Amino acid sequence: MRTRRTIAPYLFVLPCVLMLAVFVYMPLIQNFFYSFQNISLLSGKSSFAGFDNYKTLFSDPVVGKALINNVKYAVISLIFQVGFGLVLAAILEEEFLRKVSAVFRTIFFIPVIISITVICLLFSFVYNPTDGLLNMFLQAVGLDSWAKPWLGSGTTAIYAVIAVSQWQSIGYCMMLFIVAIQKIPRDLYEAAKIDGAGKIKIFFSITLPQVKEMIFVNSLLTITGAFMVFNEPFILTKGGGPGTSSITIAVLMYQNGFVRDSMGYAATISLLIFAITAVLALIQTLSFRTGKGD
Amino acid sequence: MAGKLSIYRLIVLLPLLVGVVLVVYPLFWMVSSSFKSYDEIFGSVWNLPSEWLFSNYVTAWTKGIGNYFMNSVIVTVSTIAGVVIIASLCAYGLSRFRFRYSKTLFLFVLGGMMLDPQVCLVPLYKLLQNLNIHNTYFALILPYIAFRLSIAVLLIRSYFLGIPKEIEESATMDGCSVFRTYLSIFLPMSLPIIMTTIILTSYYAWNEFLFSIIFIDSDKYRTIPAGLMNFKDALSTDWGVLLAGLVISSMPLIILFIFMQKYFIQGMSDGSVKG
Asked: Could you tell me where this protein is found in the cell (chain B) (predicted)?
């Protein structure tokens, strides 16, 4: 460690601090001020609004609807990405799959790498009511009555959208779990086998407790992701349709800011998103050092 | 796979194979249909193309994807360069010096990780307009860099901390300046973590969607994620060409992943950051 030079370290740190200050922290603070204003980009006018935006936020029924959709997103993602992701990882780390598990791993991980735009456009083909893969498959196996306009019906749209996210992201959680499982000392498994423990017993008594930190990290990441989800409803259901049945809080923010031109209200909504995600991030930071140090 | 196929293995393998089909089939369909004509995409859904229309790819490239692709390359490469340079400088300053505000500054940098880009969307949009860089490459590059710095600094700093002090001391004895030590000792020694940073950054910059649809208005500067939306509208029903566009858009990262799998996984587990 050098201690004598005093200005050098500041010079090294300066560009980074500047970038963060200008493009991350300053907008965050401005958001706060914007939330007390009426701002129109088209007319370029802005005026003081007091707590109007906040009143709108708490009385807007769509906000509640969006938040419920975000909660649905979070719950289903926890089950599929964290739950099934862990089971998938445990299976792929099984002895008898050792030789082929790399292939499986790559296959399940490929959707993670593909841009969500590509995936959403692809799934708009899959969900197409008349010519879509899903309905054609259902008809081919004789389940004609199950075929429906998945994205066009208010009851199924949000679940169809959520399904696409599970399809894409399960591989991500799986990969993190595989990394965690590989760190478990092998002799724990050997000892359990000698004791005659069955596969399921081993999973619950060794694998599960040994990866509980990763379960926590994955859960928080998944919940955070669920409260920020934007791309899937924006592309698949053209901004949360039909009506507002598949809207999420981020889509609502976008629509208010960039479609309805009420930037002040959009800023207020983004403060709500900030509040939710900041709490989650704080929990993560306070509990663990982000996946490191385990 | 030699060995007995016990009931347990069957119970495990069956859902696994179903899962593989669920993941692979839509992708397979995308690739095979991208070589088909419109009639065949919906007329013979389950079959391979009767005639492989490579022309779909040429059309996709010349009708817009080529332009978006080059924009994405420009934006991604610039973002990577910015992140690697700025983050490694900062990591060096934070890890090799003991100075008064080092802890505070480190927390300041880390705090950026807690903030999601969409939280800053409205003010950022106005800021870019005020800076007169809205609808230019910089409208994407600068925010992309800023939002990737925190994680990059965290990764590089912890790597720098692992480099033995003796190496640095001997460099100083040889008369290396502080900056020289950073440039010719620390950077080359940290190649693995720099690779990880490059891959995480390119993954983000290539796929980012929200900023790219809002901060860019003209087709000239659109990157792939936003461009694809326009491409789709412009094509109306030319599905084969659209699907070819989707395949082209996904290729760079898939190729990168296949060759750099180790760094991909390393980066994602070290950072545990989604998207």
From this structure: Cell membrane
Taking CA atoms, what residue in A is nearest to B34?
A122
ipTM of the prediction: 0.88
Q: Do A5 and B97 touch (CB under 8 A)?
A: yes
Report chain B's C-alpha Rg in angstroms: 23
Can you give the residue range of the structural domain that contains B164? 30-35+50-271
Q: Give chain B's domain count.
A: 1
pLDDT, one tens digit for every residue, chain B (275 residues)? 445 567 878 888 888 999 999 999 999 999 999 999 888 887 777 888 888 889 999 999 998 899 999 999 999 999 999 999 999 999 999 998 888 888 899 999 988 887 888 888 999 999 999 999 999 999 999 999 999 999 999 999 989 998 888 888 888 888 888 888 898 889 999 999 999 999 999 999 999 999 999 999 999 999 999 999 999 888 877 889 999 999 999 999 999 988 888 888 887 777 664 43
Q: Is residue B54 part of a domain?
A: yes
Domain range spanning residue A160? 57-287
- A30: nearest CB among B123, B232, B254: B123
Q: Say which CATH number the domain at B263 has.
A: 1.10.3720.10
Q: How many domains does chain A have?
A: 1
Position A17 in a domain: no
